Amino acid sequence: MSGRRPEHVAPPTVYYSSKEASKYATSSRNATVQAALTERCLELLALPASPPVPHLLLDVGSGTGMSTAILSAEGHHVIAYDISPPMLAQASAAHGDRLVADAGAGGFVCRPGTLDGAVSVSAIQWLCVATTSEEVPRQRMKAFFTALYTGLRRGGRAALQFYPDGAAQVQVLAAAAASVGFSGGVLVDYPHSAKARKYFLVLTAGAG
User: Fold this and answer.
1) Beta-carbon neighbour count of residue 169 at 10 Å?
2) Which domain covers residue 24, as residue numbers?
């Protein structure tokens, strides 16, 4: 693969082939980074102590299940989805329910107010890129955030870590979330370090 960002190379259903999915799943560096980012997302969710775990969480763009495994280990019940069957095939069935779904088409649609929270690691930036001539990024973002807002209980949070391709993507994602009713916004960890800087879209659905 080239040095370009994955979302600029090929659609996720093409980029994450069986070979690429296996490579991703067996990378110790990926596991370390994913664990740290998932733990940070959990911290940002600020899940209430009452009722106690298990909370019902959604793992958006779950890939090979690294984040799902961590959430499950914390005692939560997890619904995980990803657009790539080869990536999902690498995940353990013991770590929650898995399904193939496209975030830009609404992703996993559940009964309103069902989810206690949602996390995502390195996925939502794909919504900003049209991978086919029929795709419209703004429409895909709206579909995703609308379904997510509907699925979360009022006061429920989403902590979505992403790698923006410039300030414009940060702004457009935050605006798309706000347009469907989310409050909150972008949080940047280590803002003064180009290497360590991490972006999170931390959102609350309705009033707490």
Assistant:
1) 19
2) 6-42+62-205
Residue 117 lies in a domain: yes
Between CA 96 and CA 177 the distance in angstroms is 26
Do the beta carbons of residue 1 and residue 122 sit within 8 Å?
no
Q: Is residue 56 part of a domain?
A: no
Q: Would you place residue 2 in the very low, low, confident or very high pLDDT band (cuts 50, 70, 90)?
A: very low
Counting Cβ atoms within 10 Å, is residue 200 exposed (0-12), middle (13-18) or buried (19+)?
buried
Reported as a single tens digit per residue, the pLDDT across 17-38 is: 899 889 999 999 999 999 999 9
Residue matched to tokens 């940047």:
188
* Sheet architecture: strand order including 97-100: 97-100, 77-82, 56-60, 115-121, 152-162, 198-205, 182-189
For residue 79, give both structure tokens: 């619904």
pTM of the model: 0.92
Average pLDDT of the segment spanning 111-137: 90
* 3-state SS, residue 202: strand
In a domain, 52, yes or no: no
What is the tally of structural domains in the chain?
Answer: 1
E strand or H helix at 21, and its extent? helix 18-25
Q: Is 50 exposed, middle or buried (0-12, 13-18, 19+ CB in 10 A)?
A: exposed
Whether 118 maps to a domain, the answer reads yes
Residue 195's CATH number: 3.40.50.150
What's the confidence (pLDDT) of residue 1? 39
